[in-house]
Amino acid sequence: MLAKIAWRNIWRNKRRSTIVLLSVVVGVVALIFTDGLTNGMIRQMLFNQISSNIAHIQIHGDGFSGNKAVQNLIPDKDRALNTVKDIPELKAYSQRVVAFGLLSSATNSSGVYINGINPEDEAEVSIIEELIIKGNFLDEGEREIVLGQKLAEKLDVGVGDKIVAMSNTPDGNIGSELFRIKGIFETFSSDFDKSYVYIPLKTSQRMLDIGDNIHEIAIVLNKYQASESVKSRIKDQLPDSYEVLSYQDVLPLLLLQMDMYKESMMIINLIIGLALVFGIINSMLMAVFERINEFGVLMSIGMKNYKIFMMVVLEALFIGMIGTIAGTIFGLLIHIPLSIYGVDFSIFSESLSSLGVGSVIYSDISFSNLFSLIMLIPFISIIGAVYPAYKAIKLEPVYAVRYV
């Protein structure tokens, strides 16, 4: 009975109720839109980092992440590879030689990270092959090289041009090779495009004079969520002379940024929630003062205070629930095309590339945040109705009936 009366009371003043409902709907839609784009941008940053070079898990010699010296090789690569091959969650892995060196053209030079790879294995681990914009990815040529678009512009070179790569060898000498540019890639990060080049694995081993040794094994799993548990199992099977890192260990700042985003969304939710609280308080107070005579009559015929209190609260709860449901539906209808086609921020492409994000950002809703939002707004509506409901039950029936 109370719910039925509360529902009818909402529509006694259609204009006011509609305005409050619209404010709830707009707030919910704004939260879903903001959450989708921000969450999408951060997830793209993480995916781009993982898929371009980091992978889900990396195995090195102990201390390699802090000191990428050319002599810091994996102690026994065969033992490490056998351990990797036994991982049930394994999707692919790639052996890498990683060294800092100098790349020189006829007009300029630049410091770079030289990555010696097996092209077929690397294509299963990273997306560099898919990001080639000129020429082709590495194949069977021993002196082929692919580099980023930004680096090619700096060195003033193109596909087919010759270039010299140099790096220190473990014994302190300088190893060098002449390469012909096979392809040019463009990733989502301008810093990556300026810093990384890829050459055949055997060529890099010969240039650095390290035999058949490697510096890194990059591992991709079927599900990235299993990276920490798989990392722990690998560490248990290998001695302390190996270093095993998950992408969480390699990208702590990015994960911290994701945590900060979650905290910021809580603050945004709180701000919008406070705005809705005051809007509902204002609306329900107006409704209470308009119906003082009605409340006086209800009290006079014996209606309990808690029932009057609940009736006012239910009115606000219905408004919050209707607004939340409608706002969620409209928000998801906006999210679906944005998750497929994205939002084009080409005008900010330079700034976004410095953050490692593409110019098109795809909406990606966090369903935990969405669930929290769906629960939060009706609760806020109840909070906003407490004071008006309290004012209603504090009315004196004798004076309330005579109120004009």
Name its key features.
404 residues; six-stranded mixed beta barrel
Quantity of strands, as a count: 12
Give the overall average pLDDT: 85
Q: What summary fits the major beta sheet?
A: 6 strands, mixed, barrel
Low-pLDDT segments: none
Order of strands across the main sheet: 2-3-8-5-7-6
- Percentage of residues in DSSP E strands: 15-25%
Number of helices: 15
How would you describe the shape?
elongated
Helicity range of the residues?
55-70%
> What is the straight-line distance between the termini?
28 Å
Which class do the helix and strand fractions yield? alpha+beta
Order of helical and strand elements: HHEHEEHEEHEEHEHEHEHHHHEHEHH
Radius of gyration equals 31 Å
Structure, explained:
This protein is of the alpha+beta class and 404 residues long. The chain contains 15 helices and twelve strands. The protein has helices spanning 2-10, 14-54, 77-85, 119-125, 149-155, 190-195, 201-208, 227-237, 247-250, 252-290, 292-300, 305-341, 349-354, 367-393, 397-402, and strands at 57-61, 90-104, 109-117, 132-135, 144-148, 162-168, 174-185, 196-200, 216-221, 242-246, 343-344, 360-361. It has a six-stranded mixed β-barrel with strand order 2-3-8-5-7-6. It has a two-stranded antiparallel sheet with strand order 11-12. A hairpin with a 5-residue loop joins strand 6 and strand 7 (174-185). Helix 2 (14-54) runs antiparallel to helix 10. The longest helix is centred in the first third of the chain and has 41 residues, at 14-54. The radius of gyration is 31 Å and the shape is elongated.
